[in-house]
């Protein structure tokens, strides 16, 4: 069944969500703050009509939290510590992945470019950002291709295999994905330059973007998170 978007958020509010998610990954935050932000992202998925994606990510967050809680009580064995490290690492990375998935859901690349031009982003930044917004859908396709190739070779890629065999998962999945991502980024950069995005000529767009009250609520919620982080800790 195809997802139907109920509320269309402006790309600028989605960009703010991505930036804030990246900020939470770089600083130390409590589990309560993680939980609140992931729940906030789930609500964004739900009101946008992409509830299946939202529930899937939320379920992964709950599983990683339970895994961390279970492994933490199992002592200081090297394998236990390593598994706990990976569970916490994947959980900290999850909000950024959720924000990126929310941003690309229901938003065309041309809408992203129109939003950036409306924000008067200089061309020197417009080109790498254009590459970034085209990068995530391509990365998803690479993920599916690598997973299919692993299945052909009888290698399972599930949540259980990642937790039980993190090093093998990194060797057979993460490393090929990173190499493919590097190649994709280079090709997209060349494509952006060829299409003239680096020129000084202003570009027209057919998209009329306008911030609405629900976009204002997103900015207000993110501002509340920042205020809590700065003044309340």
Automatic annotation (TrEMBL):
<dbReference type="InterPro" id="IPR003339">
    <property type="entry name" value="ABC/ECF_trnsptr_transmembrane"/>
</dbReference>
<keyword id="KW-0472">Membrane</keyword>
<feature type="transmembrane region" description="Helical">
    <location>
        <begin position="15"/>
        <end position="48"/>
    </location>
</feature>
<protein>
    <submittedName>
        <fullName>Energy-coupling factor transporter transmembrane component T</fullName>
    </submittedName>
</protein>
<keyword id="KW-1003">Cell membrane</keyword>
<keyword id="KW-1133">Transmembrane helix</keyword>
<dbReference type="Pfam" id="PF02361">
    <property type="entry name" value="CbiQ"/>
</dbReference>
<keyword id="KW-0812">Transmembrane</keyword>
<dbReference type="InterPro" id="IPR051611">
    <property type="entry name" value="ECF_transporter_component"/>
</dbReference>
């Amino acid at each position: 069944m195809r997802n139907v978007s109920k509320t269309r958020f402006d790309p600028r509010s989605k960009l703010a969500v991505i930036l804030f998610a990246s900020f939470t990954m770089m600083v130390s935050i409590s589990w309560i703050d993680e939980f609140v932000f992931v729940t906030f992202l789930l609500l964004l998925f739900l009101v946008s009509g992409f509830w299946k994606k939202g529930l899937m990510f939320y379920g992964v967050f709950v599983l990683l939290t339970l895994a961390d809680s279970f492994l933490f009580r199992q002592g200081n064995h090297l394998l236990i510590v390593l598994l706990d490290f990976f569970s916490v690492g994947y959980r900290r990375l999850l909000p950024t992945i959720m924000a990126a998935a929310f941003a690309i859901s229901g938003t065309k690349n041309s809408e992203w470019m129109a939003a950036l031009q409306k924000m008067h982003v200089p061309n020197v930044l417009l080109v790498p950002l254009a590459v970034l917004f085209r990068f995530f859908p391509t990365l998803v396709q690479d993920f599916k291709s690598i997973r299919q190739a692993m299945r052909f070779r009888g290698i399972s890629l599930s949540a259980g295999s990642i937790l039980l065999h993190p090093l093998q998962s990194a060797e057979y999945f993460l490393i090929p994905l990173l190499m493919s991502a590097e190649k994709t980024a280079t090709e997209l950069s060349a494509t952006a330059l060829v299409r003239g995005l680096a020129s000084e000529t202003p570009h027209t767009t057919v998209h009329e973007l306008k911030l609405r009250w629900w976009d204002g609520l997103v900015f207000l919620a993110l501002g509340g998170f920042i205020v809590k982080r700065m003044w309340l800790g």
